[in-house]
């Protein structure tokens, strides 16, 4: 959520930011609500003052006049209750309206309407030129008996899977590879709760603008299943003041992710590209505000380091204003080459959400001047397991249907190849 004072004092900047992000918001509504709240607060405070004065008058009044002051006091108390209720209602309306506003974009974000306007920052590696007819990951996985969509469908319905055998070993090899790479960089491994309160999810900014439709709700418990571990890690320090010497505070979360994916269709629903449940390793940082852009570049560099270790062809994209999620001020995506589709597909994302989430969560730090200030929060994908499995299987496939194991993963796999005794 934006700073309300900044929002109200800089309407032109806010309006331009909204236009650039395709957010059609009437600024007059929040301005009017703010003015109404100010007036309601003044009324409430005046009535409380009058109530206090009346109570003092009761003590000083002659016995014959005391009943008159007592009756007036009862009337004032009722007015105070009404004024307090009015103030609370306006505060709630104001907060609801403020939540509609997207984060302020960083200056280097390109203005654009949609994904077609995203910028290619760099391209790393070249797609393999196969001299045989390639298979997609599902055909490879079913032939090797390491992916079972059909049986998962019997048990759970569409867009679930059983990973089996070497696919499971490959997942755990990826996990160990990430841990061995990122823990030395100061990331604290964490397995977060998979169920969080609706309040915590709302504070992270994922329930507005249709986000609620993508989340699995446990309505009997006023709780939700996380769609990524960042949604559980972010609220971990809510209502806390972090010591300056602890920053940057970096976490590496591992968790299942649960997503309804209600708008998915076509080739995206084949295989394990877009499932309702998948595992992911996620980086999350809390930093001083002036260092958040530097931390953003650092998270991107960690994503690229992991990708370069796997020797997969990819490209880095800087998303344009119309393609960035509302909590984010800047987002980079990494898109990896998927041979069966003959295109690059998103496998990683990293975003600087500045103080948009930490404002709601009330996560602060004590700066060098001894003052409490909001920290900035950032997130970045280490590996979304399903998509990286797809990229490895398809880019490393062999003519006989076997799959070469990337060299960096072999110490944990204990083999060079899946589906053949020889690489």
TrEMBL record:
Which residues does the record give as L-serine binding sites? 228-230, 259, 282, 379, 381
In chain numbering, where does the site feature Important for serine binding fall? 381
Q: Which residues form the Aminoacyl-transfer RNA synthetases class-II family profile domain?
A: 136-406
Q: Which reaction does it catalyse?
A: tRNA(Ser) + L-serine + ATP = L-seryl-tRNA(Ser) + AMP + diphosphate + H(+); tRNA(Sec) + L-serine + ATP = L-seryl-tRNA(Sec) + AMP + diphosphate + H(+)
The GO cellular component terms are: cytoplasm
Q: Which residues bind ATP?
A: 259-261, 346-349
Q: Which GO terms describe its molecular function?
A: ATP binding; serine-tRNA ligase activity
Tell me the keywords, alphabetical order.
Aminoacyl-tRNA synthetase, ATP-binding, Coiled coil, Cytoplasm, Ligase, Nucleotide-binding, Protein biosynthesis
Main location class: cytoplasm
> What are its E.C. numbers?
6.1.1.11
Q: Which family does it belong to?
A: Belongs to the class-II aminoacyl-tRNA synthetase family. Type-1 seryl-tRNA synthetase subfamily.
Q: Mind telling me what this protein is named?
A: Serine--tRNA ligase
Per the UniProt record, the source organism is: Candidatus Uhrbacteria bacterium GW2011_GWF2_44_350
* Name of the gene encoding the protein in the UniProt record: serS
């Amino acid at each position: 959520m934006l700073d309300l004072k900044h929002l109200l004092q800089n309407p032109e900047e806010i309006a331009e930011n909204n236009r650039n992000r395709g957010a059609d918001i009437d600024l007059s509504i929040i301005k009017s609500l703010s003015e109404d709240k100010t007036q309601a607060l003044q009324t409430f405070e005046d009535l409380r003052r009058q109530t206090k004065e009346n109570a003092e008058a009761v003590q000083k009044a002659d016995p014959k006049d005391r009943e008159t002051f007592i009756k007036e006091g009862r009337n004032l108390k009722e007015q105070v209750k009404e004024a307090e209720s009015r103030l609370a209602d306006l505060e709630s309306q104001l907060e609801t309206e403020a939540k509609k506003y997207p984060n302020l974009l960083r200056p280097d974000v390109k203005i654009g309407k949609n994904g077609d306007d995203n910028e290619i920052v760099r391209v790393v590696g070249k797609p393999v030129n196969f001299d045989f007819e390639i298979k997609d990951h599902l055909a490879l996985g079913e032939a090797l008996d390491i992916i079972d969509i059909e049986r998962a469908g019997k048990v759970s319905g569409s867009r679930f899977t059983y990973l089996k055998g070497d696919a499971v070993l490959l997942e755990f090899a990826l996990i160990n590879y990430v841990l061995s790479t990122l823990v030395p960089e100061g990331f604290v491994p964490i397995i977060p709760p998979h169920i969080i309160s609706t309040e915590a999810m709302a504070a992270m900014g994922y329930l507005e603008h249709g986000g609620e439709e993508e989340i699995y709700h446990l309505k009997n418990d006023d709780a939700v299943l996380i769609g990524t571990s960042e949604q559980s890690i972010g609220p971990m320090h809510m209502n806390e003041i972090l010591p300056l010497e602890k920053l940057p505070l970096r976490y590496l979360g591992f968790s299942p992710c649960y997503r309804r994916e209600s708008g998915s269709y076509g080739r995206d629903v084949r295989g394990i590209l877009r499932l309702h449940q998948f595992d992911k390793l996620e980086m999350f940082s809390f930093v001083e505000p002036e260092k958040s852009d530097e931390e953003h570049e650092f998270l991107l560099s960690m994503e690229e380091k992991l990708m370069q270790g796997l020797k997969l062809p990819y490209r880095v994209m800087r998303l344009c204003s119309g393609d960035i999620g509302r909590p984010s001020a800047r987002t980079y995506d990494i898109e990896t080459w998927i041979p069966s589709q003959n295109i690059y597909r998103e496998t990683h994302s990293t975003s600087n959400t500045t103080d948009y989430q930490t404002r709601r969560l009330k996560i602060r730090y004590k700066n060098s001047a001894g003052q409490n200030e909001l920290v900035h929060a950032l997130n970045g994908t280490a590996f979304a397991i399903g998509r990286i499995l797809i990229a490895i299987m398809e880019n490393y496939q062999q003519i006989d249907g076997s799959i070469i194991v990337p060299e960096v993963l072999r110490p944990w796999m204990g083999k060079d190849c899946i589906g053949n005794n020889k690489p």
